[in-house]
Design goal:
Layout lengths: L12 E4 L2 E3 L5 E2 L14 H12 L9 E5 L32 E5 L9 H7 L4 E6 L1 H17 L5 E6 L2 E6 L4 E7 L6 E4 L2 E5 L15 E4 L10 H4 L3 E4 L2 E3 L4 H20 L5 E5 L38 H10 L5 E3 L2 H5 L35 H14 L1
Parallel strand pairs: 6-9, 6-12, 11-13, 12-15, 15-16
Antiparallel strand pairs: 1-2, 3-16, 4-5, 7-8, 8-9, 10-11, 13-14
The chain binds 2-acetamido-2-deoxy-beta-D-glucopyranose (5 copies).
One 2-acetamido-2-deoxy-beta-D-glucopyranose binds next to loops.
Amino acid sequence: MALLPPLLCVFSSCKVLGLCFLTLYLNVAQANAAEHAGFNNHHNIHTRKLAAQANSTSCNLFYGTWIRDDTYPMYQSNCSVIDSAFNCQTNGRPDSDYLKYRWQPAGCEVPRFNGLDFLSKMRGKTIMFVGDSLGRNQWQSLVCMISAAVPQSPTQASKSDPLYTFKFLEYGVSVNFHRAPYLVDIDMQQGKRILRLDRISTNSIPWKGVDVLSFNTGHWWSHKGNASQGWENMESEGSLYDDMDRLVAFEKGLRTWAKWVDTNTVGTNTKVFFQGLSPLHFVPAEWKTTPASRNCIGETTPISGSTYAGPYPDQMKVIQDVIKGTSVYLLDITTLSQLRKDAHPSIYDKNVSQPPANTTRSSPDCSHWCLPGLPDTWNQLFYTALFN
Ligand SMILES: *[C@@H]1O[C@H](CO)[C@@H](O)[C@H](O)[C@H]1NC(C)=O
Ligand SMILES: *[C@@H]1O[C@H](CO)[C@@H](O)[C@H](O)[C@H]1NC(C)=O
Ligand SMILES: *[C@@H]1O[C@H](CO)[C@@H](O)[C@H](O)[C@H]1NC(C)=O
Ligand SMILES: *[C@@H]1O[C@H](CO)[C@@H](O)[C@H](O)[C@H]1NC(C)=O
Ligand SMILES: *[C@@H]1O[C@H](CO)[C@@H](O)[C@H](O)[C@H]1NC(C)=O
């Protein structure tokens, strides 16, 4: 696939094996008060347990601040699964402070990620991230975090787009990624790709029997133009559309997904997470009074405090509304990630072998995240939600 023109490429990185991916959203499953019984608790048990642990009645894992912590990162850029487009250090990013922050919720402590504990608790089970390249970002991070804990343990990786698997053989634990940027099906009909707002059928084949599913979708719904959107028509309730309001289409697709979750996972031991919308940093006016650049280039520190001055994404309001009343756990990483203007690849999505790098490049990556980096925190919270 050719690189898209810069404006169309804003949300996607189209350079990895010719694949185009996007957003992340995790639905974290319920908490697990009874580990041996596994995976059948309710969200309220989860919430209560965390609150107790935090010695607070108002523990919100996702509200807090970033604290400098030199014990991070948890792994190095030599982890074998990192896409070159996410591997900022190897691509020549000169600063490294962005690797040394820990998320501190205002009302509770987040346990440090323990890869061996993760493997023991997940023994024999499969975790699958489903969605766009932000799900891929989180998937690679989790594989690296676990691998760092068991560097000598045999593993087996396979790639068969759209499915990517990584197995820790001694533990029988698989950590997989299924590329499905809209979650709903896309079918070919008379040579055209039809985005089926009402249907999840083909897509869900790899999701069956998975113990922990973490979904995300969002950014692709706003891509416009045949080349970047991945479909020619949308279908809803038996009618074909050339286009429609994208937020409306997003909600239709997400409700179809919620129905799939309800039909296929309620009453089973499957835990379901949704990864909150991963934010972009293309608009410096959102965090600076006098923007010096046009995007995230040159940003090396997080925003201090707990709030972001820029807008909260409309898609998040849809996500919260759809998830309300389901058993899905929202890994609500939007705001904490909005504070991390420093954590994108920017121009270090490619090897800048001749420094100084071109700081006026017109299409830096201000949507994905460096690895190691921010998605490691998403996984630390995922781990916390999964087992506490
Ligand atoms: C909460 O923590 C404070 C200070 O650490 C302690 O004095 C108090 O007893 C704790 N409360 C509960 C309910 O655990
Ligand atoms: C990566 O580098 C670190 C530090 O140099 C080393 O300890 C570790 O074994 C390496 N890991 C891999 C997978 O090569
Ligand atoms: C997009 O696809 C539609 C349907 O195939 C076609 O009518 C339209 O001309 C295409 N637009 C562009 C910009 O290629
Ligand atoms: C990037 O370029 C430098 C300098 O030529 C080289 O040492 C390094 O191995 C390259 N990195 C990758 C990931 O190719
Ligand atoms: C830097 O990127 C800009 C925009 O893509 C381009 O016009 C310019 O020629 C590049 N400069 C160098 C030194 O490559």
